[in-house]
Amino acid sequence: MDLNILWFWIIAFMFIGYFVLDGFDFGVGMSLPFLGKDDTDRRVLINTIGPVWDLNETWVIVAGASLFAAFPEWYATMFSGFYLPLLLILLALIVRGVSFEYRHQRPESAWKNWFDGMIIVGSAVPALLWGVAFANVVRGVPLDADFNYIGTVFDLLNPYALLGGLTTLLLFFTHGVIFVALKTEGDIRVRARRLAITVGLVTIVVAAVFLTWTTLAFGTLASGLLAAVAALTLVGAFVANLRGAERWAFGLMAVTIGLAVVTLFASLFPFVMPASNDPANSLTIENASSSAYTLTVMSWTALIGMPVILGYQAFTYWVFRKRIGRAHIEAAVH
């Protein structure tokens, strides 16, 4: 396998890691108005992701840096053409991170409610806009002969891209609510399972429409098969949640999100940024990649560094594996 093809799939793997891990963070943040009856409930929800949310977020930094190094033309075109959506994602992530740290600094309800609102918005905006961005990459955007984006922001808000954004929003929401059921105990766990049933049904319908549209309009036989398996695992996660098997439900949701990302990358291959106006202006794995020497150095770096990162993250999740509930929060107060 050529190194540029290898790095195309390594970047896909990094986005899988980001969407699976930070995806449930987004879902937990969006669940605050639905599962947080009072401040104690909201503290329980935030504490389910408290030890890991910032670690999960580093995946997008690594993915962006790898994209810049391995495919500089792709990086330049996407980050210049999608400047406003990506800026909004960055601002939302900053607002969310600040809110996690500041909401407990003062006892007033108004203070906490303000930062809770920013957590909700800071979770929903990236969940929506990442789907919009990736759907536009798969669909193709207008590019000139120098691979510069020549459309407008409104061109990115097309029906297919908006459906992609709604799909990621619902997938992450469902993923996060199932994570809450997995990580909590008592009444909040029961309510999380019920909410996952309701939102899960909507997610299945919306995701099925999006994956079908992707396969018929932009996909191949391989991406179509991947989309079908993703649909089956999503239904499996719904059934597992119905039966109270939170571990299976969460695992199958992770597989679903991973397969959805692979489906999008498989639909792209061998392009990285198709040109909707003229196929000759499209960016491919070949014309967008760095030199062989750069990709070789990156490959050795990834071979050494990636096991360390995965091992450290696995250890962190193992340490903070226990369930939490209202009793833990109330005990901490006293």
From TrEMBL:
Belongs to the cytochrome ubiquinol oxidase subunit 2 family. GO terms for molecular function: electron transfer activity; metal ion binding; oxidoreductase activity, acting on diphenols and related substances as donors, oxygen as acceptor. PANTHER family: CYTOCHROME BD-I UBIQUINOL OXIDASE SUBUNIT 2, CYTOCHROME BD2 SUBUNIT II. Its EC number is 1.10.3.-. Keywords: Cell membrane, Electron transport, Heme, Iron, Membrane, Metal-binding, Oxidoreductase, Transmembrane, Transmembrane helix, Transport. It is found in: Cell membrane. It is a multi-pass membrane protein. It comes from Cryobacterium roopkundense. This is Cytochrome C oxidase assembly protein. One of its GO terms (cellular component) is cytochrome complex. One of its GO terms (biological process) is aerobic electron transport chain. The chain crosses the membrane at residues 6-35, 82-102, 114-137, 157-182, 194-216, 222-242, 249-272, 292-320.
